[in-house]
Write a structure and sequence with these properties.
Blueprint lengths: L1 H26 L12 H33 L9
Helix pairs in contact: 1-2
Length: about 80
C-alpha cells in the first residue's frame, strides 16, 4: 500500500512536468517561423509532453487501482509457530 502511494506521487509529478512541456509553447509564446508555423523542435516538445502525460496518467491509474485492491483485500492469515 505504501509503495503505491509513493508511485502515485511520482506519477503526479510526471504528469505535471508533461503538462508543462505540452503547454510551454503557448505560455512562453514561441515565435512562428517565416511561414507562420512552429519549428520541428517545438512540435517535438508538444508531442513529448503529450506522451509523458499519457504515460504518467496511465501509471497513476494503475498504481491507484493496485493500492485500492491491496487495501480492500482481506488481511493475510498469520502462521503461528
Amino acid at each position: 500500500m505504501r509503495g503505491s502511494i509513493r508511485l502515485s506521487v511520482i506519477f503526479v509529478v510526471g504528469a505535471a512536468v508533461g503538462v508543462w512541456s505540452f503547454i510551454e509553447p503557448w505560455v512562453i509564446d514561441y515565435g512562428f517561423g517565416a511561414q507562420h508555423q512552429w519549428s520541428p523542435s517545438t512540435w517535438s516538445n508538444v508531442w513529448i509532453g503529450a506522451i509523458v502525460i499519457g504515460a504518467s496518467v496511465l501509471g497513476l491509474v494503475l498504481s491507484v487501482a493496485a493500492g485500492l485492491r491491496a487495501a480492500s483485500a482481506p488481511p493475510a492469515a498469520q502462521e503461528s509457530s
